[in-house]
């Protein structure tokens, strides 16, 4: 029995961890932390899990935390900079730590501090952290105790570009990702832009060229391609609960045909349980992955402009957050990677 | 290994049967029937199940159907009057039949013919059909070979009223159910009212006092209460994919307190895995049951008007259709009733 | 030129007043008040009105307010209890005041204080306040300086019941209104239930038997019928921006036929520009009134249960708030009642 | 009094023409054509206009059509290739014709026939047709009798790129437009992809590099820039009723600063009533133009990649179709261009 605890369980990513873990017979959730909702039953905040998971949230201090002694795995689903001390403490106690925040995704503390405007308190741990996209670095994940779980946008973009970049496919022109996210990507915080009346029936770009996921994506793309790779990244909010679609544009400098492109992606992903490469002429839709750990990828070559268009969709809360975190946990524990993640998508 | 076939698998109820059954290790889907989509892979019509269930739809003639020889259980998810011959044939071959249409829900062929404006072709089988709400008539379900799976609205209303009526609670005033359904309740047919642009951002009543679920509900309520029980039923379409909420109004002629009412419902449902009775002051929301086989029930007594308000929510495609059908199948096969139905609701 | 000021212009009702008034050539908006958004241009909070209305919000103290000297009409769109002093001051200065809060809707200060849990500071003005549904009390509205603008739910229900009750139609059974509102009815406040992810794809009843609009509705219904009239009122939140549908159930004790019922409603409303009585068999949809000052009413008689079902829809922000406020202003100023309110509904 | 007729008035663009024209005192709608809905009152298909416009649809033969003798202006809102004969006939009768289909947008009949797979029946009229974006070619519009009303996507993209291209701004890299449309852009046809349950809660690209608007856009962009200009155009369907957002990417080869870019756009559009250039750092949202004839444009320069990002939003049914058609009609008739188009956007 794997014993796990979840920090920051009152947000959507935390709640999704609970939903996905609670039904496993080989996992026990020992605690769900939230200072704001301490002593309130989890199922009062998330009534869908009434009678499924009724434990109370626990408040806690992250230093010398006795809760940590009771678990094997610690998930951190707090906003960035809020759980660094907890991560450090948990590592010292020998736990396996999976951090869903941005804190351990960048290798360079200075870059982190520039983009997140806060000093990193545990920068010495950055070197040991492994960026967790199993389809790309499965072996490293198996060996680490500190897993930096990728952001939602980055997951969709990196999986979309991986085969091309891994093959050394380069371009002198800027790669562009025009990405669209459902509103749950903005969390359950009380912000005007998250209100139903403000967010529904509209689509809007934001943080043009300045979104914090940019350095994370570029660092990973550069690591894959072996050279500095830049991306123009424009995120948008779309009026739906879940889902990310990244429409990625890259110059087709090697003049690949659509068939060649598809063959390449199938070669990379045919053994991957959670990546589905669509057939020629098909485009992905976020609905088809909703509720699942899948990433669907569609591919097109526009011969007139000689551009490659890669379209990648995920459920932002599952493959883009909690599902991938569990996939990583499975690997870190030597379990079958798909355990607890085989729920089919839900439609409609 | 239980071998099943599904007639009418191209609609939402059929697709939901596939989604729920395909992941079971003790069930094998032998065929999915659709004349309109014959030889098209299921996952072309339902791309969420790509690589999960890629079998092709089969066209078939329902008389002397050899497909039926290959299965133990036949699900019929066709519109009313379309599968009566198939049901007859399957019963003769010794299959267990679960019919999701309205064809075997009413005991009286004349009532059926009046409301559905078509002659019943297998009226001799009506007597043996069992109406399948396990929480109410579990034992009869175990013993039948012909299961009439309830309608979505009826399930929400009957479960909502069951404890009161079973206790002989009667009233001289009309019981009212103001019910609201998501658009999937209207199916995947190409109708103007089902279009996104017509159905979103609006709510509308329809079939006031004339919905075909009315005789089905009244027959069941009368059977429970032991006397003729009438219902004023007004369905509405609400702009959401899934979910039914029935807000039921009944005169509180025995002057029950809210605590007494809650105690009664808890007594009836505390052992029921799929019915959750909310606490005092709580109201149910369809989101909390979405993706699950739950029925959530909230209760209130308005002392000023002395009315009882029962609020009952289900996922119309699961507890209101395919989930309940599987729950019934489990009982008919002597399996644990919850097998394959323990997926937690999804939120948001 | 009519000069108007708006208190509480940062909320949806206030913004809708601006939208509807700004295009009139006979009206000038002198100030829009908001303490929270003082000195911020209106069109920064409401970007749809960029280049249409860019004035800044003004903070103000409501006693001896010099702003009030500059206007003829004061609209108060603040929450209840926030503008009573302003109303008093404005009346003393001779302004015509239209209050969209609940503060002057109830005749009895004690009832107000019981339901709103706050002492009324200007209870002496209650007697002079006129409840403003023009279709019902047009003449009184013309003569008042203090207009209590009705709530959104009450408008839909009272217009729905008015002809029946006015004709002395009584019943021994409880009248029920099962009402459904779009999310804008809950305002632009930062509340968890107003979040897109919490409010979309679900429908939920709330405040069963305890909504603050109940005494307001009952007082008006009793005034119309001439005897104490009670209502069981259950509001629901539906996942749409705008719109209210009230489905009203009343025993048909005089055995009216559907034709008689329609004839009665047509007699009352045929001259009313903003009330449309649907034809036999038609049901109203909130989309058909969205963006307009219309109230659409559908009628049905269920012969089996002998119930009358009245279905009434409005745009909660227009006929349910700001449109009706302007309709009332027009009457108070001796203008054509429809001035500035003839924009057709928008579909889809 | 201007007398107008509308062919194809049963679709959304036709209905929007009715809604916008019916309230004008200087315009009379003489007929609304639809063969499918002949003799059915318009307000039965569009109940929002009950009591506003109740005339019946008329069926008609387009040759020697006597209806045409009764009007000054003919709007054609039929699908492509369906009204070419009507256009020819109307021109011969001296009417001013505004065609909302694609039939007269391309100068070259061969290009038309290649993309629309049908022979053009009135290709001789292509030369006299004027492409109607008033902000770009106002004078030519005033002088024509045959107005080709632009597509929705093209309007958003061309207005977005116009100042840059007009200034001779060129690039060796491909210009990309990642465009997102609400579902009304797909019309009111009974197609599976238009169903609520299929279209809501998802976003999906389609027609990648092959959308029929591509040649139209490229022809106009080339005409503006004075040289062949290509565009990589990827449309998407977003789950909302109305609105188009085009996010346009173009290499910043002249190294414009954001301030310079804004100054350029303000210079071009400051006199334009229907184009609003946002301030630095602001991004447009489709909600802010919904229900209006506005085009909002946001601008950004990403210094890292040296890309310009132009974000352009319109209401696809108004500035993208019927509103712009009326704007063109006003110009063709010598009226104030804004007549009947000053309704403010609606929010929420």
Fold and architecture overview:
Chains A, B, C, D: This is N-acetyl-gamma-glutamyl-phosphate reductase. Chains A, B, C, D: Residues 3-144 form the Semialdehyde dehydrogenase NAD-binding domain. Chains A, B, C, D: Belongs to the NAGSA dehydrogenase family. Type 1 subfamily. The structure is a homotetramer of 348-residue chains. By secondary structure, chain A is α/β, with parallel strands linked by helices. Chain A folds into two domains: 2-128, Rossmann fold; 153-316, 2-Layer Sandwich (Dihydrodipicolinate Reductase, domain 2). In chain A, 29% of the residues lie in helices and 20% in strands. Chain A has helices at 12-21, 42-45, 84-92, 109-116, 134-143, 152-166, 196-199, 213-225, 258-269, 318-332; strands at residues 2-7, 27-33, 57-58, 73-76, 96-99, 130-131, 146-148, 175-181, 204-205, 231-237, 244-251, 275-277, 295-302, 307-314. In chain A, the strands form two sheets. Chain A has a seven-stranded parallel beta sheet, with helices on both faces. Chain A contains ten helices and 14 strands. The mean pLDDT of chain A is 97. Chains in contact: A-B, A-C, A-D, B-C, B-D, C-D. The interface between B and C is large, with 50 and 51 residues.
Key descriptive features of the protein:
Rossmann fold, Dihydrodipicolinate Reductase, domain 2, alpha/beta, 348 residues, 2 domains, globular, homotetramer, 14 strands, 7-stranded mixed sheet, 29% helix
